[in-house]
Structure formats: C-alpha cells, structure tokens
Amino acid sequence: MRTVILNNGVEMPILGFGVYQIPPEQTERAVTDALQAGYRSLDTAAAYRNEEAVGRAIKSSGIPREELFVTTKLWISDAGEENARRAFDASLTKLGLDHLDLYLIHQPFGDVYGSWRAMEQLNREGRVRAIGVSNFHPDRLVDLIDHNEITPAVNQIETHPFFQRGEDQRLMVERGVQIESWGPFAEGKNNLFTDPVLSEIAQAHGKSVAQVVLRWLIQRDVVVIPKSVRADRMAENFDVFDFELTDDQMSRIAGLDTGSSLFFDHRDPGVVSQLGSVRLTN
C-alpha cells in the first residue's frame, strides 16, 4: 500500500475505506469485508452513527492495532473546548480503541477554535496521532492555520472528476496540509460511471471507471476513501496499484472539471443553518 507522510511525520495509507451512509446494521459486515480485502485505513464519524459497528469489526478482525489507521470526526453540536473532549471520549469508547490515528472537525461551523484547542491538547497527550479538518474552504483553512499552533494534517473535502479542487490542493501543499477526497465517485452524479472520457480510459487499461477515478486521485497525491457494501467492489477499488494513467489521460480527465460542488456549498447560508441544526444524541 502506498502511503503519504503527514506534516507531523505520521504515515497514512493513500487508499482507505469509508463508511458514510452505510447503515449501522450493515457496517460491521462491510468493514469486515474491507479489512479482508486488504484495507487498513477506516474512515467514520460521530454523525454517521456507526462507530460502534466499526469498532466491533476491528475487534473481531484480529488485526494488530498498529497496522490500522482509524479516522473519526467531531460534529458541530459537539463543538467547543469541553464538548470536543467529551465527544472524542465517546467516539473512542464506541470504537473500542485507546487512541485514534486521525480526528477531524467535520464541518467548519460552530466553535471551531474551541474544538481545535481541545484537539491540539489531545494530540499533545498522545491520544490522537494527527488532527485535521473536513469541508474547509481555503479562507477558513488559512484562518485556522494562522491563528493556532498546530497546522491541520488533513483537509477532507469533496473531490472527484467533476469538482477537482486543483487550487485548493495547491494551497494545501503550500501550507503542509494533505488533501483527502470524500465522494470520489460523485455518488454517480453526472453519469460518472458511463462518462465517455472515463469509459474510454478504463477500456484502454482493462479497468473499471471506478478504478480509473481512484487511480487518477492517487496519481494526484490525493488520499481517497471509497465506500461500498459489496465485497467484490471493495476488492476492485483496492486493485488500483498495477497500472498508471498517462499524462494525456490525466489531462483529459482534468477537462471534466466543472469547478462546482455537486452536493452543497459550505458557504451557502442556508446550508450552514441546515447543518448546524443537526444534533447528535449518544
């Protein structure tokens, strides 16, 4: 497995397994299948409400803890210095772990600064190996970096062929932040899986469109966490290290960029209010 080195020296697999939108009752089986397929990086969140199922799969796998890279996220309703510590402890308990590899602020709203102070302290205490953010646009990311001690190790953002985030990535490289993609397949929007450009490139390599998209992200040094509940698809998504896209193919995929989100804009006041209204109950 290819890895990236985060800004604090922590090593992170460039390809992992995400469990967003997998119902809790299906999550344990899905994570078990993913671990059997070879994945060692797992990405969940308090807001996904499936941390306990992820933890059960980890425990039953028998895989040594040091071989796994586990990420979870802090939700808006748990923001703030004291709340964030409580939320971290709750997530750790649900996962059945004694430490996390990566803890992210899930959304750039609420008391982000209080949360970050708590996360910096958790990092100093060795309870989480790296801390980062998710869904931060460049202005919010730079503001956080410039006014705090620890620079986020990761920024997990919507990144796929139709919203490629090139400028965002360039800024992150300058600031030492690793870009990570959520929604690499755009949830099939814009007919991604039958797109003519992606389909032609896939045929040329004897691969699937999904494999081409993952390979494209990996060649851009983007960490990616595809999701599936099908063991065969998990194995297919993992099998992306035996081919390489040409410069021409990378350029053709670059031409698919629309420059806009296919889901929601985190700078839209309505989206801010909608996300901020979601409360988690333990």
Main β-sheet, spatial strand arrangement: 3-4-5-6-7-8-9-10
Strand residue content: 5-15%
**Cα gyration radius (Å):** 18 Å
Binned, the helix content reads 40-55%
Task: Write down the secondary-structure element order.
Answer: EEEHEHEHEHEHEHEHHEHHH
The total count of helices amounts to 11
Features:
282 residues, alpha/beta, TIM Barrel, 8-stranded parallel sheet, two-stranded antiparallel sheet, 11 helices, 15% strand, NADP, Aldo/ket_reductase_CS, Aldo/keto reductase, NAD(P)_OxRdtase_dom_sf
How does this structure look, described?
- This protein has helices spanning 24-37, 51-61, 81-95, 112-124, 138-146, 166-175, 196-205, 209-219, 231-238, 247-254, 269-276; strands at residues 3-5, 11-13, 17-18, 41-43, 69-74, 100-105, 128-134, 154-158, 178-182, 223-224.
- By secondary structure, the protein is of the alpha/beta class.
- The strands form two sheets. An eight-stranded parallel sheet has the order 3-4-5-6-7-8-9-10.
- α1 (24-37) links the parallel β3 (17-18) and β4.
- The longest helix is centred in the N-terminal third of the chain and has 15 residues, at 81-95.
- The two termini are 35 Å apart.
- The model has no long low-confidence stretch (mean pLDDT 96).
What's this entry about, in short?
41% of the residues lie in helices and 15% in strands.
What's the helix and strand layout?
Blueprint: E1 3-5, E2 11-13, E3 17-18, H1 24-37, E4 41-43, H2 51-61, E5 69-74, H3 81-95, E6 100-105, H4 112-124, E7 128-134, H5 138-146, E8 154-158, H6 166-175, E9 178-182, H7 196-205, H8 209-219, E10 223-224, H9 231-238, H10 247-254, H11 269-276
Parallel strand pairs: 3-4, 4-5, 5-6, 6-7, 7-8, 8-9, 9-10
Antiparallel strand pairs: 1-2
Family: Belongs to the aldo/keto reductase family.
Protein name: Aldo/keto reductase
Keywords: NADP, Oxidoreductase
